[in-house]
Amino acid sequence: PFAPLAQKQNNMLRQQALGSFRELLLSVAKDPAMLQFLNNQQNKKDSPNENFARELMELFTLGRGHYSESDVKEAARAFTGWAFN
Description:
Helices cover about 60% and strands about 0% of the residues. The chain contains 5 helices and no strands. The two termini are about 15 Å apart. The model has no long low-confidence stretch (mean pLDDT about 95).
């Protein structure tokens, strides 16, 4: 059921919208809805899934076209293993 995760994400965004950008970005990166919807659970050491890293950079930080494919690959490696219970 994705709806409870989406509601939790909405609440988190509302709580942190006017605070520290660093804290907001960290919360978004750890958000179960983001991790699930963008398939970070499929991000494995030997086969990085770049979807989560790409969307985090495009939607929440740098914007479209302001990062390289190398940036995406390295960010995907950094997020390998990030999951939620």
